[in-house]
Amino acid sequence: MTERQIGNDGTPYSRRIAAQRLLVTVLRLAIGWHFLYEGLFKIALGNWTAFGYLSNTSGPLSGFYHWLANTPSLLRITDVLNMAGLVLIGLALCAGLFVRLAAACGVLLLVLYYFAYPPFGNTLLNASEGHLFVVDRIFLEAAALLLILFSKERGYGLGALVRLLRKSGKGREVDAPDDAASARREALKHLASLPVLGAMG
User: Fold this and answer.
1) H or E element: which one contains 115?
2) How far apart are CA 55 and CA 63, in angstroms?
3) Contact 158/97 with Cβ under 8 angstroms?
4) CA-based Rg of the chain, rounded to a whole angstrom?
5) Model pLDDT for residues 106-144, shown as the tens digit of each residue
6) Which letter does DSSP use for residue 12 in this model?
7) CA separation (Å) from 117 to 81, 167, 181?
8) Any idea what DSSP says for residue 201?
9) Domain residue limits, the chain
10) What does pTM read for this prediction?
11) CB under 8 Å to 37, separation ≥6 — which residues?
């Protein structure tokens, strides 16, 4: 193994890349499942609305949220966009498709949630579990999505599988049995997120 293939800590780059890819995949699946579950739960209720959530906000942007809650047409649009956004972002993150777009949309949605009940100012008087000063669960999830958004590594998933197939179809012929087996193993790794999603469902 050449010097370039070994990192400063003595670990081969291929092993380090595989570990990073696995960690990003697990993080992406966890956040994706959270979004997907929240969206499906709201849809399953049948009569879910964000009215109560929006009308009780007390943060610096509470005027905006109260306006949405008290305008029936905007409230209906907000409800549909919220449920659809949660489900689509969750599906994209779990499947590994359009990961950067899903992460960006997820951050935007979480920022809106964060400022509805920000963990500072008046809302600290009614702090609940996981609602700490400035940094709360929403903040941490948004930070994790930002990491996924700006990371070069997107993990295993359908998007990476499509890129792998395109790359192999552009004239890179697999002529050795070891190369063919390696390509099959790589393809199966990218499909691994689907059974996980099915099991969670």
Assistant:
1) helix 99-116
2) 9
3) yes
4) 21
5) 999 999 999 988 887 665 555 555 556 778 889 999 999
6) B
7) 19, 46, 52
8) -
9) 16-155, 157-195
10) 0.73
11) 90, 200
